Amino acid sequence: MSAEATNPGAPIRRRGRPRIDLRRLGRVALLGPVSRDRLPDAIGHVAEAHRAHHPDADLSVLRRAYVLAETSHRGQMRKSGEPYITHPLAVTLILAELGAETTTLTASLLHDTVEDTEVTLDEVGEQFGDEVRYLVDGVTKLEKVDYGAAAEPETFRKMLVATGDDVRVMSIKLADRLHNMRTLGVMRPEKQARIAKVTRDVLIPLAERLGVQALKTELEDLVFAILHPEEYAHTRAVISAATAAADPLTAIAGNVAAVLREAGIAAEVLVRPRHFVSVHRVSVKRGELRGTDFGRLLVLVGDDADCYAVLGELHTCFTPVISEFKDFIAAPKFNLYQSLHTAVVGPEGEVAEVLIRTHRMHNVAEAGVIALGNPYAADSVAQSAEPADGERADPTRPGWLSRLLQWQQSATDPDTFWTTLRADLAQDREITVFRTDGGTLGLPAGASCVDAAYAQYGDAAHTCIGARVNGRLATLSTVLGDGDTVQLLLAEDAASGPSPDWLDHARTPTARIAITGWLDAHPQAAEAAHGSRPAARGPGPQPDQPAQTAQPGSAGTTAGRTASALVERADATVRLAGCCTPVPPDDVTGFTVRGGTVTVHRLECPAAVRMEAVGRVPVAVSWGDASECRVTLVAESFGRPRLLADLTEAIAGADAAIISATVEPPSEQRVRHTYTLQLPDAAGLPSLMRAMRDVPGVYDVSRAQHPAPAL
């Protein structure tokens, strides 16, 4: 918060209000008159910017906050030599230009008073109310950032906790960091680099997720200048040269404006220059830059329908580049961003990228959650949604932030928290998947069904046995796509848990921390699950299950609690074939496969018959004393309501545990259910099959017979 900062090489400012002279503001803060009937001169710029977004705002509270901040910080100086009051003034001006409401600006002016002066939190509350007190307290709890490696995790953990209660806390923090980055030149180069790296790794991704693009892009350029000075200097020179040349985008913008006027669409067409990092990325991607690569066209209209009308006119009157079209209005980004993206070919063959959005969409695109105002205003939904535990429900809080807050509470180790935070922030895209009950889940790109299970059910997802994705059965390792519909299948046995293999397919911190916590708390069950239940395999018959090495005369047990098979071969590894799932007292035989493993099949198994027919030599197999077994059963039935529930109830009544289950789509009113079950005693298999056949609508139950894989 109080970190000092001078510009390492300020980006060229091509538009907008000129940057404030902070030294002049400092002199005004110390020497300028402060009358009772008007705002102090030092925050005149703040008042002007605030009134531009909120014409009816009451500025008297800002005057009182400024007076308290100025008198409290009087005599304090920044390392750059400026009066300290210039820092909260600059932070407040950044937020005012983005459209922050009065409460946020008031808290911004006071954000360092409780930490750096004798002003108390109670005094802030008495003079400015509970909302301002809440925000100042949230920012103060972040403490001064110690940029040592050990301090970073706890600092940003506190930041996330404060942000979760009120996103305006993070808004103030981001503006605070931007001003410090603007004035970072007074620090030693090694400290500049440390601060820039933390900004790059944590704060810039947070700004992206909060949708505050205006802060994110400038922070990116400032970090670029510090960490990559040569590339920055080259990019700056390229942009300067392009600025001096004729701009082809201006001509295309004129053509676009003319087309829209002729179509009767009221629109504002602007040339939007790219920032330094964006130009650098384009140059890396394309090599030699074209004249249209230094900016994009921005078309602003009145409402959503006009956006699509503009798109239609552009694609009719110009040659569109179809591969560049994206609709973020119908499917907004996870950070509230909405816009239509396209590209068209100009009269001279130049390709121009075009952004189409309403004025409100543009405000949100620039300022993100800041543009949404006070989420706790009297007419806000949150006002009537006060949780029982006292935590305030923020209607603007993005789904990713809610997830982040959930798992940070579980990651008690600071190093684990820090590593997981950076990994989560490195995800640059989020997808939305639909639940069968009509709800949605926000997940990072690359998330699997395992992640969806924990996002929807929390710790109850430990019992997940499979999923249906877009109506089709899928393994838990299946990677989900944007817009997929997912249905998670849970086992009724609440004592079951995840396998260590699930970690191979978990992408979200929520899933990974929950799985790791369960495995740590159940080491014996975790060890058994590791052998017996492949974590991310979905429902359905499983492949051959590995067994422990079997000595002559000893019981070679299959993975987990499955039946024991004996082979007359020393040091042999035994597997029970997944194609026919043999159990005692089945007549069985074995065949040696790759690596010397003996795979045990039922005598009538088609795979066994096929191997013997091609000359494979069978191995003698007998059953040991263990009575537990695993078996796969197929139930054929007529479709009816509650059939699945009745079948699982019959299975549970026979003391069998469901390891996996599949339900194929109905065909001619017939349904096929496949269950892989764990039985406490193989002798109970016949009675289990009878109980399943007795379920109304079930006309056959048989042992699974599936083609075996090539051996």
Strand residue percentage: 15-25%
Largest sheet: 6 strands, mixed
* Estimated radius of gyration: 33 Å
Please work out how many helical segments DSSP would assign.
25
Total beta strands: 23
Q: How far is the N terminus from the C terminus?
A: 65 Å
Overall pLDDT metric: 76
Helix content: 40-55%
Shape assignment: elongated
Low-confidence stretches: 1-38, 144-151, 378-397, 528-562, 707-711
Which class best fits the helix and strand makeup? alpha+beta
Outline of this structure?
With 711 residues, this protein is an alpha+beta fold. It has 25 helices and 23 strands. Helix 2 runs parallel beside helix 4 and helix 11 runs antiparallel to helix 12.
Structure in words:
With 711 residues, the chain is an alpha+beta fold. The protein is built from 25 helices and 23 strands. Strands 1, 2, 3, 4, 5 and 6 form a 6-stranded mixed sheet that branches. A 5-stranded mixed sheet has the order 8-7-11-9-10, with helices on one face. Helix 3 runs parallel beside helix 5 and helix 7 runs antiparallel to helix 8. The longest helix is centred in the first third of the chain and has 21 residues. 46% of the residues are buried.
